[in-house]
Amino acid sequence: MRWEDRVGANVRRLRRAKGLSQEALAHEAGMAMRYLAGIERGEENPSLAFLVKLAEALEIHPAQLFD
């Protein structure tokens, strides 16, 4: 599995576990919802800065995005 696919699946799983919509998580992380949707589909190649923003919004350690 490509790392983009793994990260995307983990973001989707963690977002749903927190009961957040894509819109809510994107707003909390300071990114466009379309960009977040692309990350979840494994279509985007997010920078480390964006991954840290997502982790902070999800209240997790960034390494959990790669588990």
From TrEMBL:
InterPro entries hit by this protein: Cro/C1-type_HTH (IPR001387), Lambda_DNA-bd_dom_sf (IPR010982), TransReg_Diox_bact_type (IPR050807)
CC terms in the record's Gene Ontology section: cytosol
Domain HTH cro/C1-type: 11-65
SMART domains found in the cross-reference section: HTH_XRE
Source species: Brevundimonas diminuta
Keywords: DNA-binding
PROSITE patterns per record: HTH_CROC1
Protein known as: Helix-turn-helix transcriptional regulator
GO MF annotation terms: DNA binding; DNA-binding transcription factor activity
Transmembrane stretches, start-end: none
Pfam families tied to this protein: HTH_3
Domain of life: Bacteria
SUPFAM superfamilies documented for this protein: lambda repressor-like DNA-binding domains
